[in-house]
Amino acid sequence: MPDSTPDKDAAATRLALALTRLRARLREESGRDSTGLSISQLSILQRVRRDGPATAASLAAAEHVSQQAIAQSVVPLKSAGLVRSRPDPKDGRKALISITDAGLSLRESIIASRNSWLSRAVDSTIDSQEQAALDKAIELLERLADADT
Known about the structure:
The protein has helices at residues 6-29, 39-51, 56-63, 67-79, 101-125, 131-146, and strands at residues 83-88, 91-99. The chain is mainly alpha-helical.
């Protein structure tokens, strides 16, 4: 069992709250809320943009949700012209979901808005002496995100 102390518990709580607040702020600043798309739908767009066409089953596994949840998220994405599906050439019973040019444009716009705000926020709140600490913190956060405990 991991060693748990009040200091570690307090740090975990502070980290969780800070990440929640930062995620909400990034969502707000990216204009993502104005798209009308859910976090799940945007995550699907990101995944098929990054990884290429995928089946509902592979998306469900990657997103840690049911295939039904993926199906419910994909319908409005298709209706909006952000994704398309075509038969899987390896198994015609399955469909491959891929991002469209409109989906790529939307995703890139969201990323650009988010990154622009974050860059300005870093420039205005992190001085040059703190930059190394920020780089180390990012490295630590990446390790935490990959932790398999």
